Structure formats: structure tokens, C-alpha cells
Amino acid sequence: MAFTSQESGEYSCSSRRNGRGKIEIKRIENTTSRQVTFCKRRNGLLKKAYELSVLCDAEVSLIVFSSRGRLYEYANNSFYRQQTQFYFQHVILSSSHLLKLPK
């Protein structure tokens, strides 16, 4: 981002963009591309959960299910990991017929 000086002594930001462009959020039709995107975004989400727990001293627990029904979880301490496993085993599995989770 470049700043330019004006005659009045103020600085204004030029409209040069260095970031990534926005993408349209919709289902990815290509199975391979969808799986690659899921893996990358899942890893990014897990990293963000870890960073949040460290930077803010927060208790964080995260559960992610893939389209194939695989479970991915993160908890920043053993208590929350046990709580997540309990929740998964007793609440989600007992009501999986209501949630229609893939098996």
C-alpha cells in the first residue's frame, strides 16, 4: 500500500491491491478439487484454532466432519479433548439418525 503526500499535508492511500481476490462461495463440483480445498481449509482452520488458544489464552475445541464422515478434532488441553470425545460419542452418535451423518 503506497501513501502519497497532498498539498494540504494530508496523506492518502493509493488504491493498489496486493491481496487475493474474492471467490464466489459455492459448492465445488470437481471431486478432486473439492477434496484438495477441504484439506487446505481444514488445516487452516485447525491452525487458526491453535493460534486463538495460544494468543488469547482461550479454551478452544473444534470438530470437523468431512463429506465422507471422517472426524477431525482439535482441543487445546486434555480436558476439552475428553469433552469433545464424550460429546461426539454420546450426543452426535446417538442422534446421527436425526443429523443424517454419512457413515
Automatic annotation (TrEMBL):
InterPro entries: MADS-box/MEF2_TF (IPR050142), MEF2-like_N (IPR033896), TF_MADSbox (IPR002100), TF_MADSbox_sf (IPR036879). The keyword Repeat does not apply. GO terms for biological process: positive regulation of transcription by RNA polymerase II. It comes from the Eukaryota. The keyword Transcription applies. It holds the Pfam family SRF-TF. It is found in: Nucleus. SUPFAM superfamilies: SRF-like. GO terms for cellular component: nucleus. Residues 18-78 form the MADS-box domain. Its main location: nucleus. One of its GO terms (molecular function) is protein dimerization activity. Keywords: DNA-binding, Nucleus, Transcription, Transcription regulation. PROSITE patterns: MADS_BOX_1 (PS00350), MADS_BOX_2 (PS50066). PANTHER family: SERUM RESPONSE FACTOR HOMOLOG. Probable transcription factor. This is MADS-box domain-containing protein. It comes from Genlisea aurea. The lineage of its organism: Eukaryota, Viridiplantae, Streptophyta, Embryophyta, Tracheophyta.
